[in-house]
Amino acid sequence: MLHPVPTLRETPSQTAGPYVHIGMTPNFAEIRGIYDADPGLAMLTPDTVGERIEIVGRIVDGAGSPVGDAVVEIWQADAAGAFAAPMGPNSNSAPAFSGWGRQPVNGDGVFTFQTIKPGPVAGPDGKPMAPHVSLWIVARGINIGLQTRLYFADETEANAADYVLNRIADPRRRQTLIARREEGALPRYVLDIYLQGDKETVFFDV
Amino acid sequence: MSSIMLPGADGALYQRDHSWHPAANTPGYKSTTFRAPRQPLLAIGATASELTGPTFGHSMLGALDNDLIRNYSQDGTEAIGQRMIVFGQVLDENARAVPNTLVEFWQANAGGRYRHKKEGYLAALDPNFGGCGRTITDENGFYSFRTVKPGAYPWPNGGNDWRPAHIHFSVFGHAFAQRLITQMYFEGDPMIWQCPIVATVPDKAGIDQLIARLDRHNTTPMDSLAYRFDIVLRGRRSTMFENKLEGN
């Protein structure tokens, strides 16, 4: 198949700025009455299949300070490893699990998602990738959204064979993407994200 | 059909040109100093996790979601300021329209004041202006909204830095790897060329792509000016998405 030569340049990125919440999470910014609820706030419906989990992370800058004004979006497969199909233009029937969430961090730089543990998705080599959640982080001082992934510490075998983790040359840096599991009424996976420095998280060019 | 997606296969996105986008660390914009990764980004190619993305149905929208003049009105009074329509087309690098994608926007009021608890600028809030809106592109990739022109405002970067009038945009596209946040500026504004955030874009032609044009043909006489701002997302090697829309 012949492919067209690209004719346009991508619109350059700019920082989301410190007031990103006005547009992306207006209710969190105490702008009420425009949207019923902030988009992406609730990922689960009663019909969502899968193990309920909480994902918790803290975003830290290169000086060790919490990044208190970030917004995080996640995108993930469902428990069977399938991504939600595109919605039709006039669709009223949202899927039982949309796979997308958006949360602002609190003043300590901490974000929390209530979601399900995703199933494995086929990788570019045809083999299953380990279960993972894609993250996209924007904030004041971040000129272009940062893409990374969260993997699960209790998936040791799958993580060892994962297509993306194995492209990280330094095995110590692979650990920056693996969330530890804490037991509780709702199992939680905890991953701190370091934007810069000795413990710097691996960010991707996707 | 196989689900294997080799790099360069149909449906893959063109590589993002990071020399066209701002670098992570741009010292003129001081907040980037401790928020820019020092390690290079790791190129992983796009897997299914990046080539898919959330989509939104038009039914999520409220009737006033794309009318910032009225969507926060407390008592029917419209927002104060220069009335405008902002519109444009969302395209990909192949100049193909991106239909049915969510576009979000937010801005300060006519005096340059944001409705945000962390904002302390002395310019007054407008009780009837919230500053956010959203819409979904039509089948030809077009979006539009009604608003008032935002004012310039000062910010604590250099000793006397002012942001040019701007509107923030968030666009989804149809793949998580197309996700984009940017800012729109206004044709002729001399402050564009003095702004350290604008200056993070390395190429003048890239900056020019962020400047909306006054469009006299689309003004509403005796009511609103019109500015056109087209947005380009990363292109794909094939029309996989269009095929998908039809139900594969």
Q: What would you note in describing this structure?
A:
- The complex is a heterodimer of chains A (206) and B (248).
- Chain A is mainly β.
- Chain A is 7% helix and 26% strand.
- The model of chain A has no long low-confidence stretch (mean pLDDT 95).
- Chain B is mostly beta strands and 248 residues long.
- Chain B has helices spanning 48-51, 204-208, 240-245, and strands at residues 42-43, 83-92, 102-106, 132-136, 142-148, 153-155, 161-163, 166-171, 180-186, 211-214, 225-228, 231-233.
- In chain B, strand 8 (166-171) and strand 9 form a beta hairpin.
- At the A-B interface, helix 1, strand 5, strand 6 and strand 9 of A face strand 1, helix 1, strand 3, strand 4 and strand 9 of B.
Percent helix of chain B, as a range, is under 10%
Proportion of beta-strand residues of chain B: 15-25%
Low-confidence stretches of chain B: 1-8, 239-248
How many H/I helical runs of chain B?
A: 3
Number of helices of chain A: 3
Overall pLDDT of chain B, averaged? 92
The beta-strand count of chain B equals 12
Average pLDDT of chain A works out at 95
Oligomer: heterodimer
Determine Rg of chain A (CA atoms, Å).
18 Å
Shape of chain A: globular
Tell me the helix content of chain A: under 10%
The SSE string of chain B, one letter per element, is EHEEEEEEEEHEEEH
Question: What global shape of chain B is seen?
Answer: globular
Characteristic terms for this protein:
A: 206 residues, mainly beta, 8-stranded mixed beta sheet, 3 helices, globular, B: 248 residues, 9-stranded mixed beta sheet, 12 strands, 6% helix, 24% strand, disordered N terminus
Q: Can you summarize this structure?
A:
Chain A is mainly β. Chain A has helices at 20-24, 156-160, 171-174, and strands spanning 52-60, 71-75, 100-104, 110-116, 132-138, 146-152, 178-182, 188-194, 204-205.
